[in-house]
């Protein structure tokens, strides 16, 4: 028996990076997983995971969400776990950013999470409850001026998570909602951040693998996702967990 045996999970942004690691570990621990991503590479990633399904999905589209949830119901008859992981970063300060850039970053992380929760709750309710895990960032706690829109979007993810968690509890849905705030985790996104920090000649330990005390691996986040997805975390609700090896504590 795996730690999430019998559960059905959707992980967004799962073609690579943290989402891929989440999907792999959830599947290894017994969940049936739907991996979604705007990149068609998600089909390749899903094909490598036994019993998993890949779907090309843009998390900013309400119609796309309706299709993914309908697929979960048609294929598996239930939904227990949703990991709102898809996100992009835009390396611009308040003075450099455009409204268009801001809206794109916000649309994927914040609106995508909003749409995902809204779409998933009815099927989770029918399934007797569930766990929603939303990917925020330490960039919502510490001000890194070169990611202005990203910080705003990830802050929205945190406050929305608490709000939805309390709503679901008040309604008696048995749906928990938590946010994860990763620090620096090795991924394509982090590699791009490191390049940008170098280009600008900045001193930003959390965005620079060369300066961070420790660089996390996607599996470090996946282990937390697994815990939050499992019934072991049944008392963990409406909270946010920082996983950054003490970087923001200093
Ligand atoms: N890597 C880190 O250090 C770190 C730190 C804090 C937070 N995060 C957050 O964790 C999540 C995953 O980050 P990662 O490092 O794996 O990044 P990544 O860029 O490697 O992966 C993100 C995935 O999201 C997908 N995506 C982008 N736009 C999408 C859309 N509109 N619809 C669906 N999918 C879309 C991309 O195609 C990609 O596969 C993100 O939300 C990121 O902000 C990462």
TrEMBL record:
Keyword Oxidoreductase (UniProt): yes
Residue runs in coiled coils: none
Keyword Oxidoreductase: yes
Keyword field: Oxidoreductase
SMART domains in alphabetical order: PKS_KR
Domain (Ketoreductase) ranges: 7-167
Pfam families (UniProt xref): adh_short_C2
InterPro entries documented for this protein: KR_dom, NAD(P)-bd_dom_sf, Sc_DH/Rdtase_CS, SDR_fam
Alphabetical list of PANTHER family matching this protein: DEHYDROGENASES, SHORT CHAIN (PTHR24321), OXIDOREDUCTASE UCPA (PTHR24321:SF15)
Family designation: Belongs to the short-chain dehydrogenases/reductases (SDR) family.
Protein name: Dehydrogenase
